[in-house]
DNA sequence: ATAGGGTTAG
């Protein structure tokens, strides 16, 4: 029998039970756990078969015992309790124990306690330093991290494979490319470039600092590439808008026999979502099904997003339903999916269900909800959500929430109300916000307000040609030729040229990329012929293209190219895809915004009866600065 | 003992 602190007795019969009880008593006394805490007791008992043999009656002075106690700590209070006992028993001199204590403090985000301990540690070895440096890096305490790294350097130590990844991580998180390159230099100087931890961190750093080519160069020179390295590179391409290359790399990785884990699956699923490539999506899904019985939250959420963006909202919902654990991101993803599929009411319906499941909405959830309202014309509902968010959930609207509201009000024709909202908001106004207003002005032909919006856009981004084109078009429409000339002159003076927008289409398991007036595709001739005949069919049935916002002095061919740029994907689809008659065209983006394109799509779907998946050009990073005329609506 | 990669909006 063993006695606990509060003198209650614990009975044990078999030798194993004696060990269990012994272990539990010892742990409980160190951690100040009451002996009637059954859950905790069960937890420790489970560990007993492995650890029991190490436990002795004199465990209070046994470093090994404290080590396991530290590993099993459940809260900061317990850690502090151990800390003081280690201190009393003079065990802090043991670098193993002290380092573990330091590490555990950091794991519970007790940065100050950790730093304190670090300062008082009688003996600091390289592990202590790397734990502390890593802790600062993870916590986002960049200056502290660099300072400690420097001190470590100065204390006569060399940078090593444990400290450098943390420092490189800081360069990544602060987007400090300059420092990143310096560290890279140091890595070479100390001959550490063969370490995969360091190289993978460097590849990641370059990628997240926006120099993807440097990342790739380093990646290509690496002799030993492990799964993490591949994952970093695959994710990097997806993030910079070249998701196609992500999938190429993923295939290469599989080919050389590297088996993906959940994290790399998430990365490639994300790439598929960005591409909107349904066939690829299904292949990845099969691969995942083979390897895993169930989806974890993150992988499941990524899959919901992927299927929704590839056009299959139903499969997205199925996965959502099947997921055992769902967090706020899973719910927001599903809500957003209904939003851009134009099913605003279904998005709204999910909200109370989410609350019933005790998931607290965050600001992104509300962006998704408001977005859903604006794309389904649910004005009243949107206004209600907007005030609910502030009054019940105490979430302050940021510029994205306001953008949804401006979009919502603007599309509904309540332009003055939208403008008032912009005037009165206390958040910094950005490009997206003014673009939303401008879009609404275009729909409702409000020239004066459009002018204000375009001017604001130019003020924020004086070097973005698309804003000048917009303003010029607005002046042209209003017959303000002098103003228009001025704007055109400004464009010439600043040497601004219009950059094309891109679209992608997936046909027969291949992803094709197009831009306006682009003849680079190998089937280009066929595509343009098909396009021409489609346009002819359209015009025969009374379709009048909207030439209003095309630059006025461009030649006819360019004009046509611009107007129908994004029709190319239809054309290629008709040239290359064969699907059963009567299948409807599935869009990943709600179409109700533009009568022209909608009419066009509907018309084509009736005439041709084929299925394609079209992706929204605006989702791609390198398109963001471009001008998409018709593409805006797709 | 200490180090690198993952999910939602825009």
From TrEMBL:
GO terms for molecular function: RNA binding; zinc ion binding. PPR repeats lie at residues 125-159, 226-260, 296-326, 327-361, 362-396, 398-428. InterPro entries: DYW_dom, E2_motif, E_motif, PPR_At4g14850-like_plant, PPR_rpt, TPR-like_helical_dom_sf. One of its GO terms (biological process) is RNA modification. Keywords: Repeat. The keyword Phosphoprotein does not apply. Gene3D superfamilies: Tetratricopeptide repeat domain. The keyword Transmembrane helix does not apply. Residues 542-634 form the DYW domain. Belongs to the PPR family. PCMP-H subfamily. This is DYW domain-containing protein.
């Amino acid at each position: 029998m063993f006695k606990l602190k509060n003198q209650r007795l614990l009975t044990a019969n078999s030798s194993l039970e004696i060990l269990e009880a012994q272990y539990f008593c010892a742990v409980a006394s160190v951690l100040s756990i009451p002996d009637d805490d059954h859950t905790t007791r069960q937890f420790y008992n489970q560990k007993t078969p492995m650890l029991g043999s190490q436990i002795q009656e004199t465990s209070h002075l046994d470093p090994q015992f404290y080590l396991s106690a530290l590993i099993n700590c459940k809260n900061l209070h317990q850690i502090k309790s151990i800390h003081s006992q280690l201190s009393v028993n003079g065990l802090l001199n043991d670098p193993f124990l002290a380092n573990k204590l330091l590490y555990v403090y950091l794991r519970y985000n007790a940065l100050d306690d950790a730093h304190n301990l670090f300062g008082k540690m009688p003996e600091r070895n390289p592990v202590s330093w790397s734990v502390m440096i890593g802790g600062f890096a993870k916590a986002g305490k960049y200056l502290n991290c660099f300072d400690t790294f420097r001190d470590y350097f100065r204390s006569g130590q060399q940078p090593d494979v444990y400290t450098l990844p943390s420092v490189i991580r800081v360069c990544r998180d602060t987007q400090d490319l300059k420092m990143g390159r310096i560290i890279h230099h140091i890595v070479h100087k100390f001959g550490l470039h063969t370490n995969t931890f360091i190289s993978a961190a460097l590849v990641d750093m370059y990628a997240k600092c926006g120099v993807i080519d440097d990342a790739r160069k380093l990646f290509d020179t690496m002799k030993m590439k492990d799964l993490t390295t591949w994952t970093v590179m695959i994710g990097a391409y997806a993030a910079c808008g070249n998701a196609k290359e992500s999938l190429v790399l993923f295939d290469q990785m599989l080919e050389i026999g590297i088996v993906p884990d959940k994290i790399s699956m998430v990365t490639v699923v994300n790439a598929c979502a960005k591409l909107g490539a349904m066939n690829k999506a299904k292949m990845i899904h099969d691969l995942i099904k083979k390897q895993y019985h169930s989806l974890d939250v993150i992988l499941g959420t990524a899959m919901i997003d992927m299927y929704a963006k590839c056009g299959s909202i139903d499969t997205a919902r199925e996965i959502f339903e099947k997921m055992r654990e769902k967090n706020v991101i899973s719910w927001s993803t599903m809500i957003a999916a209904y939003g851009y599929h134009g099913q605003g009411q279904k998005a709204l319906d999910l909200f109370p269900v989410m609350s019933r499941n005790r998931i607290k909405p965050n600001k992104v959830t509300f962006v998704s909800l408001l977005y859903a309202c604006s794309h389904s014309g649910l004005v009243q509902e949107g206004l209600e959500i907007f005030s609910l968010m502030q009054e019940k959930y105490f979430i302050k609207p940021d510029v994205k929430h306001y953008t949804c509201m401006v979009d919502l009000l603007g599309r509904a024709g309540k332009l003055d109300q939208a403008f008032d909202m912009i005037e009165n908001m206390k958040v910094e106004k950005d490009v997206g916000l003014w673009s939303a207003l401008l879009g609404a002005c275009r729909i409702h032909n409000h020239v004066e307000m459009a002018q204000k919006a375009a001017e604001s856009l130019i003020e924020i981004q004086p070097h973005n040609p698309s804003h000048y084109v917009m303003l010029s078009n607005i002046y042209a429409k209003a017959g303000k030729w002098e103003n228009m000339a001025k704007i055109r002159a400004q464009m010439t003076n600043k040497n601004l040229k219009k950059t094309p927008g891109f679209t992608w289409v997936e046909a027969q398991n291949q992803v094709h990329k197009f831009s306006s007036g682009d003849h680079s595709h190998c089937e280009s001739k066929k595509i343009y012929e098909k396009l021409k005949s489609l346009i002819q069919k359209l015009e025969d049935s009374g379709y009048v293209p909207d030439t209003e916002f095309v630059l006025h002095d461009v030649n006819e061919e360019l004009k046509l190219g611009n107007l129908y740029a994004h029709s190319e994907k239809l054309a290629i689809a008709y040239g290359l895809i064969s699907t059963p008659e009567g299948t409807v065209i599935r869009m990943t983006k709600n179409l109700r915004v533009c009568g022209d394109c909608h009419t066009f799509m509907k018309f084509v779907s009736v005439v041709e009866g084929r299925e394609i998946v079209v992706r929204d050009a605006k989702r791609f990073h390198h398109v963001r600065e471009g001008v998409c005329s018709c593409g805006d609506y797709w």
